[in-house]
Every structure is written in structure tokens, then in C-alpha cells.
Amino acid sequence: MKKSLLAIAAMAAASGAFAQSSLQIDGILDAGVQRIDYKGTTVTGIGGNGSSTSQINFRGTEDLGGGLSARFRVETDWNVVSNKANTGTTAASGAAPVTGSTFGNGEIRVGVAGAFGALDLGSVNYNTLGTYGVGQPFGTAIGSGFRAVAINDAASTSSVRAENALKYVSPNFSGVTVSLYKSFKQTKAGTGVAADGNYSSTLGAYDQYGVQELGLNYAGGPLAASFSTLKQDNEEVGAGTAPDYTVNTLGVNYNFGTAKAFFLYQTVKGEGVRESKLMTLSGTYTLGATVLMAQVGSLNDDVQDKKDKMISFGADYNLSKRSAVYVRYESIDDKLNYAKNPGSIAGTAGETTRTRTAIGVRHSF
């Protein structure tokens, strides 16, 4: 259940400054027993994010009058099974600090909304992330094939957002919204840093590829559909050798009541490096407190002339509106070698299959 923290009534009455303001805190905790078989090497332990990304969000709005409002979001994706991952400490002397769970490492945005639509600035989520969620039921967790057969952009980590970005979303026209996204390219040519690295608070002090994205979204009745076309400009960024990429993603789902059908189609083109086509079919079936889900898909790359195949299953048993226990399974025959190595697990030569299994609990607040 989401919590709303309203201004103290006495203060609001005295000053009027907080009368139309609100702060909301919400989040997710997800952890369970996970087993990974990465191309012949197996590890089992307690892991996070088996069914959803663990996070805490601070969101705020202020009514400015005349239908205009200011708003913000600060998202932190945290590790629910490792203190060291959240505090930035390491066990090994002289080892680099862990920074993956530092405060504000997710979407950070501030903007305004009104009759014209909404405009946000910061490190804002791509529309492609939403498209991906429309096209399959596993989110970005186990079962989704995310950062394996499907991606959000062509960066090495398949980022779900870009730095120094702005995003405009139009008003809703009979269920249709349009999204325009721009992240400005930063070039410090000759530094040789990675195209998505060496960030700094000072403009011009780092390299970063540019991003442009157009999104079209529809939601009406039982049908939802989303299309995103994202282009990355790598010219003169970092070492200057990375190609420009175009990622087109289409997601559709139709709600039949207890059953829901999904379709995802994605093409990725990077000159001389990748020219792939992904298609998945998936569905869910709700039986009381239990939600069953399954997905099959394949990824073809014309450059390598190879194909990956994926199959995944899942089940949620909802203990309440906010808590659930879950099971997830994902298997990818990764002949293209796109499925990222989880952690430092070393695969066995000649093996191509990666499987992930999780049994866990998820709680939202």
C-alpha cells in the first residue's frame, strides 16, 4: 500500500505553502532462493529481484493552480540480500567499492504536468521500458529474457534510461499518448572512455552517447499496445569506434478476463555488429489468488546467422494485495552469446544454455 505524507495541517493553515503539496513513499522488496546454471557452471544461494526490482521511491507533487502541477521522483534500487552492496564496502582489502545500490541510482526526474501533457528532466526512463512491459508479463526479472534476448538500448548494460535527458508525454487522446525523448550527446573526444561511462556533474567533462526516442502508446478496454523507436548516436564518443544503433520495440497485450495474451517484437540494428529480430508469445491465467505465466521466444541475428531460443514459466500466489510468493524459471539456448554472465560465473567451453530458477517472496508498500 502506498503511503502519502501530507503537510501538517497547522503549518498549512498558518503559511498555506504546503496545502496543495504531497510526498509519497513506496517500494518493493523481493528476495528468494535462486539457482543459476550458466553454460555448465552452477551456483545456488539467496538472491534478489527474482520477480521484480527491489526499490524505494520518493515522489512528490505540488498543485500550482490552473491545472498545472510540479512533480518529482527519486528512485533507489537496493539490494535486499547484501549489506555491503548497499553501503559501498567490500570484504577484500584494496578492492574497488561497490556502488550498485547507492542512493538515487534509479530514475531521477523533476518536471511539470498540465493540459499540455507532462515534461520531465533528469535521468528519465525510456518509453521502451514501458513497451517491454506491455509485450510480456515478466517485467525485467527472471523469465523475461531481459538483457539476454531483449534489450532496452544497445549499451553494454542495456540501460533503461539515459543521463541528462528530457521526456515529453502528450495528453491522452482517446487512449493514445505520444512520448518524445532526448538525451544530449556529450563528447570529450580522445579520452577513450566507454561510451556510457565517466559521468560527471559538469557538462562537457565526460563522454556519453546521444539518444532520441519516439513512443506511441494505447490503452483502451481490454487492449494495450506500445511502440518505441530508439536511436543512439555514438559518433565521436569515447574511442569513437562504436556504431550507431536503432532499437524498435512493439508490445501488445489483450485481456480476456482470467486470461491475458502478450506479443513482443523487437529489431536491433548496429552497422556491421548486430542485426537481430526477436519475437515472443506469452500469456497469463488467473485462478483465484494464483497467477500462472509462460513465454516462448526466439532471437535471430543475420550478422552471426544464428538463433537463440527461450522458454520461461512463472507463478505467483498472492497472500494479499501487497505480498506474494513466487516461482520463476527461464532457459535460454544462447548460441549468440548475448545472455550476460551473471556475476563472475565462468561458463564451460562449448556450452550454450543458461537457466535461472527462483522461489521467493515479494512485498510492496
TrEMBL record:
Signal sequence residues: 1-19
GO biological process: monoatomic ion transport
Record domain Porin: where: 8-335
Membrane topology summary: Multi-pass membrane protein
Presence of keyword Lipid metabolism: no
Gene Ontology molecular function, alphabetical: porin activity
Cellular component annotations (GO), alphabetically ordered: cell outer membrane; pore complex
Alphabetical keyword list: Cell outer membrane, Ion transport, Membrane, Porin, Signal, Transmembrane, Transmembrane beta strand, Transport
Protein localization: Cell outer membrane
Quaternary data: Homotrimer.
PANTHER family the record matches: MAJOR OUTER MEMBRANE PROTEIN P.IA, PROTEIN YDDL-RELATED
Name of the protein described by the UniProt record: Porin
Species, as recorded: Ideonella livida
